[in-house]
Amino acid sequence: MNSEKKYKLLQGNEACVEGALAAGMRFFAGYPITPSTEIAEISAQKLPQLGGKFIQMEDELASMAAIIGGSLAGLKSMTATSGPGFSLMQENFGYAAITEIPCVIVNVQRGGPSTGLPTSPAQGEIMQAKWGTHGDHPVVALTPNSVQETYEYAIEAFNIAEKYRTPVILLMDETVGHMREKLQFKDPSEIKVVNRKKPTCKPEEYIAYKPDEDMIPPMASFGEGYRYHVTGLTHDETGFPTNNNEISGKLVQRIVDKVEKNIDDITFYEEYKMEDAEIVIVAFGGVSRAAKSAVDNMRNNNIKVGMFRPITIWPFLEKQISAVSEKAKEIYVAEMNLGQYFIEVDRVAGKKCPVKKINKITGELITPKEISDAVMGGRE
Amino acid sequence: MFDKLELRLSGSGGQGVILAAIIIADAAIEQGINAIQTQSYGPEARGGSSKAEVIISKDEINFPKVTTPNILLALTQNSYDKYIATLDKNGILVVDESVDIVHDAPYTIYSLPILETAQNKLGTHMVSNIVSVGALYALIGEDVIDKDIMLKSITNRVPPVTVDKNISAFEEGIKLIRG
Amino acid sequence: MNTNCSNLTEKYFRVNRLPHIWCPGCGHGTLMNTVVRAIDKLGLNKDEVVLVSGIGCSSRAPGYLDFNTLHTTHGRALAFATGIKLANPKLHVIVIMGDGDSSAIGGNHLIHAARRNIDITTIVFNNNIYGMTGGQYSPTTPYGDFATTAPFGNIDKPFDLCSLAQGAGATYVGRATAYHAPMMQKLIENGLKNKGFSFIEGLSLCPTYYGRKNKKGNAVKMHTFFKDNCVDVKVLEKNPEKAENKILLGEFYNNPKPEYTESYQVIIDKFQNK
């Protein structure tokens, strides 16, 4: 029985499902779309074997709605999509945010806009991940850069969703979704699994949206005897709609604060050869793999260059980027879009040092040479 | 001494070059060396030409894509025409003998009866990808990946009823290089 | 009758959420009442009843009722409900939608939920108009009628929602009106008993927008219209001439088929028994 290997050659998309299952995912609703479809296919294969549920919905609007329903009924829920589907999911992403229903949304980014380049990598949804749904709302988005990290941050995404009662985006790209690498499985005993906080009071005392000290209200599942009301309208602590301006404002402020004020708890990043770096390349996801190679190549030519790689894309790692800008003489933001993360980096670091862009929107991964050419060209 | 190898496997859709690449990558990680496998998707993967890539390396592999392969496999004229320019000039070209090639090129050339071996010796063109794996393995070398591990990787990845045939195909592929 | 109104109110309503927001004469209150009476008649455990709604006048009903209640986004109620039912098939899931909610923005979700035959009882409060936004024409506004967005008369053809649901795969289908409340209650009861997708259309009335725009008179007159112009579908058997130019009511379709969550459970059980 236990002769099963602890590692396997897997695609990023496969590792995503492995991580989700390890975190306790038992409900998946989705709609086929390249390049994320394997996540649905493998979920369809594996979930019923674990007593979990998979459903292919009629579109991504419905997929997002269904996972919120699944989560409210007590199962850890996920959906996965790519560009066009991610656009459709924005509607109910906002619903999950304001109703504080934990769920995980995977977006394996491909070339856009519109149908764009379905089979090619891109990172064009950095800003959409943050601002795609209307209104102010909390967003957590994590970007893995390897098969191993996809597994680990799928687990993390569920844990954050459960802990903070908020939708979490696992923002992948086609490069990471489709490449095969070794995945080292973790022993269940090594995996930290967080489950949502449940009410401990009697049902008649339950005030569904009354937050504890930590700003997070305990969450009962439908069917557990705590009959309560959930609405996408701004609501008071009882969960019922209110037009009261002060209460409405406080609600939105709280759901944003519960994430933003806990940013240190959800901050993940990698620094590579940063100790003495004068030039810093900021890169994430698939592009960071090229950036790392470029750093090595330039270091061989005695260029003092390093890489800062945000894994937490949202909330923006303002503190860390600010610290980088204190020491760097130049920052390059390399991304497969026309400069989205750049906007945030430039906002924070631009006053301290020049921030430059390295962009590619051809549907191909930026190469190490393109990065080093940009950096070296900038120095001549 | 082996340090890092980049392979590009190309052919027409349906020839199974992606599976061939997966088998090599699978064996590499089983051997305890790093490997990464990528492929082209989309219209390119449905009929027409198809390509898959593998990098195996003693060190950590960062950039996952193959740009200048050390070994290029081309099973068809189309794939040869399309990818030959990317081959490292000190690299190795492995082509099916049906492919017309430029002979005064700087790289080492193996023009092998891969498709014919599959069809005539093993009775099905379906195993030409595993014949190719055999040929590529002979070039990668037993000092890099143990043969047992290669055999296990093939066994694990092909349909169970075809294991014996695929193992034979692998051996035939090795013979095409070693004689 | 032991189920008098005040008993029901105390037992099933969130009294502190009343009075409701519906206009005087609106048919929605009556229809909501038939939902409660049907639940009471079947003696369902309140903790196991989930009421899901979308957006519009109809969507406010669950907020007044003491169950697990979910007020979702416009048109998506059935997609949320599908997630709930599949995640926990023990729950009795009831969806309340409006005509625009269910058949315009939510039309796709309606046909697919029906197609799956998932055990959800869907009740549409059909008032032939978008009331919450002030009287725009909906997919059930009759041809030629007026609305704020059809100032020269509606040139869209209306949906027959019951035919739509039946064609899509619903296994229990019926229609009643706010005037025919006992029939409405009975249909909902049967819908809840049906292990599969049940679709009950409740014709409602909107004196404020649809009625005024189309000179239909006050609420009493609109109720009288239902009384005079609806016949039970059973007349088709013996006196089909009585159905001419009338609105058909009653049970249109009752044909149980394999239910979605049960079919899924069969797949799960295959692995559990291994």
Description:
The complex is a heterotrimer of chains A (380), B (179) and C (274). Chain A has 380 residues and is α/β, with parallel strands linked by helices. Chain A has 2 domains: 266 residues, Rossmann fold (3-Layer(aba) Sandwich); 110 residues, Rossmann fold, CATH 3.40.50. Chain A has 12 helices and 16 strands. In chain A, the strands form 3 sheets. In chain A, strands 2, 3, 4, 5, 6, 7, 8 and 14 form an 8-stranded mixed beta sheet that branches. Chain A has a 5-stranded mixed beta sheet with strand order 11-13-12-15-16, sandwiched between helices. In chain A, strands 1-9 form a two-stranded antiparallel ribbon. Chain B is α/β, with parallel strands linked by helices. Chain B has one domain: 3-Layer(aba) Sandwich (Pyruvate-ferredoxin Oxidoreductase, domain 3), CATH 3.40.920.10. Chain B has a 6-stranded mixed beta sheet with strand order 2-3-1-4-5-6, with helices on both faces. In chain B, helix 2 links the parallel strand 4 and strand 5. Chain C is α/β, with parallel strands linked by helices and 274 residues long. The interface between A and C is large, with 42 and 40 residues.
Task: Fill in the keyword field for this structure.
heterotrimer, A: alpha/beta, Rossmann fold, five-stranded mixed beta sheet, 38% helix, globular, B: alpha/beta, Pyruvate-ferredoxin Oxidoreductase, domain 3, 39% helix
Structure in a nutshell:
The complex is a heterotrimer of chains A (380), B (179) and C (274). In chain A, α11 links the parallel β15 and β16. Chain A is built from twelve helices and 16 strands.
Enumerate how many helices of chain A there are, as a single number. Answer: 12
Please tell me how large the radius of gyration of chain B is. 15 Å
Percent of residues in helices of chain A comes to: 25-40%
Low-confidence runs of at least 5 consecutive residues of chain B: none
The main pleated sheet of chain A reads as: 8 strands, mixed
The helix-and-strand class of chain A reads: alpha/beta
CATH superfamily (homologous) name of the largest domain in chain A: Thiamin diphosphate (ThDP)-binding fold, Pyr/PP domains
Pair of chains with the largest interface and how many residues each contributes: A-C, 42 and 40 residues
Give the helices and strands of chain B as they follow along the chain. Answer: EHEEEHEEHHHH
